[in-house]
Design goal:
18% strand; binds 1-deoxynojirimycin; alpha/beta; Rossmann fold; 6-stranded mixed sheet; Immunoglobulin-like; single chain; 24 helices
């Protein structure tokens, strides 16, 4: 690609660094001049030099745009087509936070594989996924797009998605490249308000927030999208510490960097540049290759180079990365790579793809409460009440191409059991006759939550909870009927208050195209729920941020019997969350015992074998997510009270006992320092194992000798 690069004019190179929307090409430019074209201040020449396009919708559109573009292109360098395929193209899978609840990277990979097969038929080459942002704040609307609060789980899920998109390699059909986002620490927006400032220690960055982006890159992500926020006061889009020191230096990555939508220009609002020329300067020197939907580079880079303020090699390096990506995707051989409406008709929304989505959905719901009321059987008569009883749009935000009204709603899926349906949340709307019908039902199933659009980008909430009306509906039903099953549809952990007194409570999130079938299958016991929470559920807003892998403090609160006044606690609420990370019930009952470690005293070169017996004390077969956590009691710096190190999902038949084995090695006992280096200390570690971060059994082991 170097030879090709040498033949490009400066203008052509700068063009490669511009990404714009497809409507710049497909509509009559004269019509558009009043709108976005004018806003970006791009003339036709610059538009037809753009290196990539975002947000194409279908094969015909893609082919038309690429054709038009190539007709005018001197070098016939095809454009790259990028889009947001977040949890499926047309076959929609559970939202990422739900998928994370499956604790199954294998399922995430399957989701990404189907997404790539479908999306590539529309000529999409790159998806803006996965979102590897860690978040401890359910107020932030975008937690729905991520995998929760734990670095290991997020890293595993992100890496699996990347692998699923790539499939067996770009030379094979049905594959797309992945752009990991949003680099970096976007999920730590202050007060959970989207786009807000991020102020974080280097320790948190290196140890907690950065590792999952790296995992996605190691798995093969070819692009990195910068985030809207600042880190150390510098907008991430132009942040040389992140884009040069960490990404290129520390990680040795050659991934293409791309801004978020308009985020390069937004450094004006951040107040770190006073005009678009300075914006371009900060972008290119900061390490940004592609500018999405703003035009600082297109309009100012040339002058900056002519003036000698920007060296041409910065441009060359960025453009070379972009050209290499195009080459690796095979665009020079076939600029229309994959785009085919015939193929789309054959495979998109196929039975096999919907079946794959159903499988993931069944494993993504989390049973939070159950006093034995679930599962019910086919003879059980239910009253199905609440706004989500007949809501079709429960496939989740970011479904973009997905068809939310093509699938059954709950009342349709549960038609054989349902003797009364009403979606009105207002208690006043229920007549005397309604009440009689509700009382005639064996069980009331309440379908509550937030609309799918209430989570996602720019949809932060100061109080993530149910509406007042829905809470009143719950209280009223609770009073008049003894058996209440609550289903929750939401894109973030909720503060649940009295809802936790439901006889059963199922966190459904948004489960994609097959939501209703998956929920039906769980309610009827055809599926035994196995999901676990990837994020803690706070008791109230004041507890936020609340997360399982926190530090101990110098005055830790030791629990109910601790009567010391001067300890780290609240006067008005417990320290513990309502539901902790890793928590989730099953229709089976799993008991943990006999935790064994091959060596109680070990050295850095040892590989430790850890085994634990898990018995299913019920007659029902079920899956359990067995989790192993470590606590490093004494380090050079204070260490988290526990960190997830291993997990595995196992089928255990009714009354069966299984011995689960894990291996641990030096890396698991090492940790990151504020300067990003990794160290290992001798001393005691507590090893916890259980079905939640609120685990059941533990043992202490000792590391003798150290390397670092
Ligand atoms: C803005 C969002 O922050 C990002 O996640 C998305 O990929 C881009 N827009 C492109 O649609």
């Amino acid at each position: 690609m170097k030879e090709l690069l040498m033949t490009l004019s400066r203008k052509e190179k700068i063009g490669q660094m511009l990404q714009i929307a497809p409507f710049f090409f497909v509509k009559d430019l004269k019509v558009e001049v009043a709108g976005p074209v004018e806003a970006l201040n791009l003339d036709e020449e610059k538009i037809f030099l753009a290196g990539s396009v975002l947000g194409i919708g279908n094969p015909n559109e893609m082919i038309e745009v690429q054709q038009k573009y190539l007709e005018k292109s001197r070098h016939k360098i095809p454009m790259l087509f990028m889009a947001d395929i977040i949890h499926g193209y047309k076959t929609i899978f559970p939202v990422p936070i739900a998928m994370a609840s499956s604790f199954s990277p294998k399922l995430a990979q399957a989701c990404a594989r189907v997404s790539a097969l479908e999306a590539s038929t529309s000529g999409i080459h790159v998806t803006f996924s996965p979102m590897a942002d860690l978040s401890r704040d359910p107020r932030w609307g975008r937690v729905v797009e991520g995998f929760g609060e734990d670095p290991l789980l997020i890293g595993d899920m992100s890496a699996a998605m990347v692998k699923g998109y790539i499939g067996e390699g770009y030379d094979k059909p049905g594959t797309i490249a992945s752009c990991v986002k949003h680099f970096a620490a976007y999920g730590a927006a202050e007060a959970g308000r989207d786009y807000n400032t991020v102020d974080m220690s280097r320790l948190s960055l290196y140890s907690t927030y950065l590792p999952s982006y790296l995992r996605a890159l190691e798995a093969g992500a070819r692009l990195v999208m910068t985030s809207f926020n600042t880190v150390d006061g510098v907008p991430c889009t132009v942040n040389p510490f992140l884009l040069r020191e960490v990404l290129r230096g520390r990680w040795g990555s050659n991934a293409v960097t791309i801004s978020d939508y308009d985020s390069l220009k937004q450094i004006l609002a951040h107040g770190v540049a006073e005009n678009m020329k300075e914006v371009a300067y900060r972008g290119v020197t900061g390490g940004l290759d592609i500018e999405m939907q703003s035009a600082a580079y297109a309009n100012h880079l040339e002058t900056l180079i002519e003036e000698g303020r920007v060296e041409e090699h910065l441009l060359d390096e960025a453009v070379l990365r972009i050209l290499e990506l195009k080459k690796d995707l095979g665009l020079f051989e076939d600029p229309y790579r994959g785009a085919s409406s015939e193929l789309a008709d054959k495979i998109v929304l196929s039975e096999a793809h919907l079946a794959a989505s159903l499988e993931v959905a069944k494993e993504s719901a989390v049973l939070l409460e159950n006093d034995g009321i679930l599962p019910f059987n086919k003879e059980t008569k239910i009253a199905l009440i609440g706004p989500y009883a007949t809501e079709r749009n429960i496939i989740g935000p970011w479904h973009w191409h997905g068809c939310w009204n093509c699938h059954e709603h709950l009342a349709e899926a549960l038609v054989d059991q349902t003797i009364f349906v009403k979606s009105d949340p207002s208690v006043e709307s229920y007549s005397h006759a309604d009440v009689q019908k509700i009382l005639a039902a064996d069980i009331v199933v309440l379908a509550l939550g937030e609309k799918e659009w209430e989570s996602g980008e720019a949809h932060s909430k100061s109080n993530p909870t149910l509406s007042k009306e829905q809470k009143e509906l719950f209280s009223w039903i609770r009073r008049i009927h003894p058996k209440v099953v609550t289903l929750l549809f939401n894109g973030r952990p909720f503060i649940l208050d009295d809802i936790v007194t439901s006889n059963a409570l199922l966190e459904c999130w948004f489960l994609g195209s097959m939501s209703s079938q998956a929920i039906r299958s769980i309610l009827l016991g055809e599926t035994n729920p196995s999901g676990k929470l990837p994020m803690s559920f706070p008791r109230n807003v004041g507890q936020i941020p609340i997360y399982y892998n926190h530090l101990n403090t110098g005055r830790p609160y030791l629990g109910e019997h601790d009567h010391n006044e001067y300890v780290s606690k609240y006067l008005d609420v417990k320290n513990t969350p309502q539901y902790p990370f890793g928590y989730g019930k099953s229709y089976s009952e799993f008991v943990y015992e006999n935790l064994q470690v091959s060596k109680k005293v070990f050295s850095p070169t040892d590989i430790l074998q850890v085994t634990v017996d898990v018995t299913n004390h019920s007659d029902r077969d079920g899956q359990e997510i067995v989790q192993l956590y470590l606590y490093d009691k004494v380090g050079r710096i204070s260490r988290p009270v526990q960190e997830l190190k291993r997990y595995t999902k196992v089928w255990i038949h009714g009354q069966e006992k299984k011995t689960i084995a894990f291996q641990l090695s030096e890396k698991d006992f090492s940790y990151v320092m504020p300067d990003g280096s990794t160290v290992l200390d001798s001393g005691e570690f507590v090893l916890y194992v259980g079905g939640s971060s609120n685990h059941t059994i533990e043992t202490t082991i000792t590391l003798k000798g150290t390397r670092a």
